[in-house]
Amino acid sequence: MGKYGTGERFAVAAENEDELMMDLPLSNSAMFTRVMSDPELFRQLAEVVTGVRLEPSTDNNVEQTIEPVIGARGVRMDVVAADDGRVIDVEMQARSEPSLGKRLRYYQSTLDVHHLRKGEDYSCLRESFIVFLCTFDAFGLGLPAYHLERACAESAEVHVGDESHWTVLNASAYKGETHRELAAVLEYVATGSVRKDDPFVNRVDAAVRHANGDRKWVEQVYSVMSYEENVRMRYSILARQEVAEKVAEKVAEEVEEKLAAVRQEAVAEGRAEGREEGREEGREEGRAEGREEGREEERAAVSRLAAALKAEGRESELIEALSDSGALAALMREYGC
User: Fold this and answer.
1) Which residues contact 312 (CB under 8 A, 6 or more apart)?
2) pLDDT top residue among 191 and 56
3) At 79, which helix (H) or strand (E)?
């Protein structure tokens, strides 16, 4: 028992003995939705995390996708249960979410729109509970639970009366939770440890072990996880490439600015030289053409150098070298430009 925690997964042999496949913990989203599809287990979990007594119900929606309006972003909710007076959504969150507050806000609006029928008065909105069961500390204060309620900033005596309740749990701080049953759940999510005196967590652990016994399903979950990870990796690579391209564009702009300054200086020097030496107009034009040809060759050489430095991640050296003729010449020699 208790070997399925977030940080303590143990490998077990798959059908192919040469391949090892780890058991899934409750913190895995697929495992969580599978286990909590049992209406009785979900009811007990909902009671533990909300502190509200609920009547047994079979009205569980597992991994329900709700689109509040046509064209709006859909929300895939882990486990939702509703009765005549309440709607409860419990989400397992194993990955840090930088916009958790706004995600809670969107989930709330989605639940409200979904459960309020057309023509009904706002008073028909059900009391709602949204609980994020996190494996990490979302707000950094080390608290095991954060209860978030809308309130009046000017007076605590003002009661908004919206009957919506948000709770963000921090499984990693289970030792600081004083409510025994909630502490047992948080500890199981964080470490996989099962308290022998907690019947609910023992039932959850039995369901997790039973699900892990379905190796074909576990393999399918890992396949999906691998695909999602590959997608995230591709987006990460594309993001890095976009940054690199922006850096390269910035380098090109700075190079062009430097070259423009050099060209202007050369033109000024040429004119001064022409006036000083009193050369005839034809020879002046010849020198101008020669200087222009030289500048074109210089631009081509600097462009080749920029491309070579970019390929090796050394763009910053070019920017510094453009203000140091000796360093620029050294780079030119190094790359044969």
Assistant:
1) none
2) 191
3) strand 75-82
